[in-house]
Amino acid sequence: MKKIWLNKVNRFPHDTLDRSKFLRLDKNERVIEFEKSFLVYLKKKVNTFNLTSYPNVSEIKKIIAKKNKVSENMIYLSNGSDLSLKSCFELFTMPRDKVIILQPTFGMVNVYCDLYNLKKIEIKYNKKLELNYDKLLKSISKKISLIIIANPNSPTGTIIETKQMKKILNKSKKYRVPIVIDEAYEGFYKKSYVSYLKKYENLVITRTFSKSFGIAGLRAGYAISGTKISKLLNKFRPMYEINNFSCVAIKYLLENYKIVRKHISEINNSKNFLKSQLTKMGINFIDTHANFFHIELGKNIKKKEFFFKKKGILFRKGPGVKGLESYARFSLGSKLQSKKIINIIGKLNERNI
Question: How many CA atoms lie within 13 A of 340 on its CB side?
């Protein structure tokens, strides 16, 4: 086997837990029920044609392009935004190339770096969730093949302010280094860099329909870039990028965007409720620019995780940064669902767990 570095790549099997029995606050998915009208519409589309025919992806590209006010030939469809990221790795890198990434960040970024045998230049967060921007900017040179920046970032929930992002973009442009800004949490965070594509030909924006749109189960995402890069990215596309039911759902949600806006509003209301309740209880938390929230649960996180699980709620470890191990990360749902979190935290305190 020529790719001997693959022996060092660790991939873990999928969890066998039946998550349908729990309130799923562990993977930043939509946990608020969809409107019945949307579900009725989808059920009508479960027919022989959509099961037996190949999807009309060109129609979806047009709709996405119109929504983002870009041309259709700037869109690259993918089976989830992680496949858009993968295509960027395939396009821009060769084994042993240097790549600048945030650490921690979306897990598949590290996986792709390892799969393609790349040297990672990691820009780490301190326990105040601050990045070393000096190191980031100094690291950008002709020797860099790719920069990946999630904005907002997961699992930290942080953003890079526009002033700093412009510095990064300008230096990457100077050295002609491709830069990907992953906007997976677009909608929850209002600032987007799509309008910057005209100025920065080296820029790629990746998006997903899993977060604010809430259709993670349909695995759909896309990238937007200038026509030169987009033309190259589309050479990596499979025969059909997404399936018929993804097309159906995407079209409906983009044409009925009020559903997405309502979801975002419910998440923001839930977040504000959590902030007020935790403040009253004297419990520390870390706010985010995404659809999740960090709560300090203190010591014995594993015991508390087990207690939550017994009560039917799943969560994950917090920001993934040294010094913040006492925090847990909860995906956000409705205000009613957030009340369940508060009630369980109250019981944990009563029982001194």
Answer: 20
